[in-house]
Amino acid sequence: MHELGDLSDRQLLEMFQEGSVAAFEEIHRRYFRRLYAHAFKMLGNAEDAQDVVQEVFISLWAKGAGVRLHTGLAGYLFTSVRNRVLNLIEQKTVYQHHIDGLAAFLRENPAPAGDPDEEILFSLLEAEIENLPRKMKEVFELRRKGEMSYAEIADQLALSDHTVKKQISNAIKILRDRLVQWKSQLVVLFF
Q1: Rounded to two decimals, what is the model's pTM?
Q2: Where is the RNA polymerase sigma-70 region domain (predicted)?
């Protein structure tokens, strides 16, 4: 029997598909550093790069015998990393866009005067979060309090990344609309 390090990618993949943990470990050993360098080059963040590569290997492990490649193993792994990096960049961009929108709204529409109004707005906001549809609230709270990525939320709740992104976007839109309503009501109450 050959040493695993001497086997081709195709041979390692076949062994892995037949259930060999050692073959998976060899694939991981062979590609982790190169995939990490690829992800880091695109992201510029060590933690995010490591998370992306780990997610690719977790996905490969989960697929097991079901892995069907139209390219070589290296091409599959590098493409998977690139796609996950692009998804992560898009998620962060969309999330940041919504946060920036809320921050701009609050800057342009300050509370009438004093901290009690801010506390009222915060209480109303928390109440509105509680009133979000159940699944939307769950997704929103995991992102807000758990600081989980879209992919982590999708995995935990068995949803697609797209559904998670849409739920968070809808929640922020609902909350922004409610903030507009509250501001006008508070101005009437306090003036």
Answers
A1: 0.52
A2: 29-92
